[in-house]
């Protein structure tokens, strides 16, 4: 007679509970029996009652899914009552085969958590979370301003005002002054052309030719509406910038040593019109990260550093044990799938967060640079696998460099130093001079140069 083997798993978290989060109610399980499951509402008093019910059973740790935005208030209340919360991704708590109900879901989450099979998702510290709220709200206003800008261009075309042909940016200095004057009732092409900025490439005569329109009242009304919306969105963006600047300086003032840190100026870093309006952002970012100069990395812009501040923060980097773990969280590392010794797939997993998007944009900018360490790496990958693969590989390299700089407190020292345009010209000129001197065997005495001068060059 064969004896059946019984497989048992060790209980890792004895005082554990599982919560199935919903929009109108939360189902809580403190055990596997039906009597161990209870439903609670979503109001403030219901959340307090939920926490007290868990404490009555001696529960110390709770696991729940990060379902939409419904988990946030419950998460705060659980932390307030001193409970350890494991907020996990829904793909790790998929129910076993069979009927799916809220009662079964919370019991399944409780079982997985008791066996120690659930890992918590990344959550930033409170300072980073507040800064993230301001930055994400700012991003929403930028998207709405971009939408209003497109609609303004549409109405301009309907009016036959081909402003998009004669100016590079309709919402630039020249374009906005012309649109403002049109909305105020001025439809004379020559007087509108007088708003030309001195940096505009097209002359006033050509701008005036592009501003002979049909002057339809309905299109003028639509243009005015969108222009007012655009100005409203810009005011909201500036309000967000003020709150962001206030929050960053508040964090720096907590440590007096940070306020004394000074870094070198970087005039070669271009400031995009959508960049946050924080005064002397280069110095502020250097102080915020405690003397780590992320702006020294080629391709990293003001927007990239702001994304790092708001999405991860300084303390957030310490939660990742290695650069590989950080890249995996960003979904920039290959997701290897191997079976039978054969690699089935090694593609980067789908999905992205705001920091991954910012790093990929920085990597794309690096691909347009010349004669830098990072751009050389980008071009080697692009030559073999294409630009898309090069963007992902360079973004991953950027993430590794940033993690190393912040966690190990080391400066950025690329093997190939970044040079300004005049420095590059000087280096190339010296190379050509040395080559010609060697080619024609020219002696220093023949050209009147001191021998020590030639050797030092």
What do you see in this structure?
This protein is of the alpha/beta class. It folds into 4 domains: 16-114, 2-Layer Sandwich (Nucleotidyltransferase, domain 5); 127-249, Helix Hairpins; 256-408, no CATH class; 421-456, no CATH class. The protein is built from 20 helices and 7 strands. The strands form 2 sheets. A 5-stranded mixed β-sheet has the order 3-2-1-4-5. A two-stranded antiparallel sheet has the order 6-7. Strand 4, helix 2 and strand 5 form a beta-alpha-beta unit. Helix 4 (126-158) crosses helix 12 (302-311), helix 12 packs antiparallel against helix 15 (354-366) and helix 14 (323-329) packs across helix 17 (387-408). It is globular, with a radius of gyration of 30 Å. Residues 453-457 have low confidence and may be disordered.
The assigned structural class equals alpha/beta
From the N-terminal CA to the C-terminal CA, the straight-line distance is 92 Å
| SSE topology string | EEEHEHEHHHHHHHHHHHHEEHHHHHH
Share of helical residues: 40-55%
Please tell me the overall pLDDT.
87
State the shape: globular
By DSSP (H or I, 4+ residues per run), the number of helices equals 20
The count of β-strands is 7
Largest sheet descriptor: 5 strands, mixed
Q: What order do the strands of the largest sheet run in, or round the barrel if closed?
A: 3-2-1-4-5
Rounded to an integer in angstroms, the radius of gyration calculated over CA atoms is 30 Å
Number of structural units classed as domains: 4
Strand content: 5-15%
Give the low-pLDDT segments. Answer: 453-457
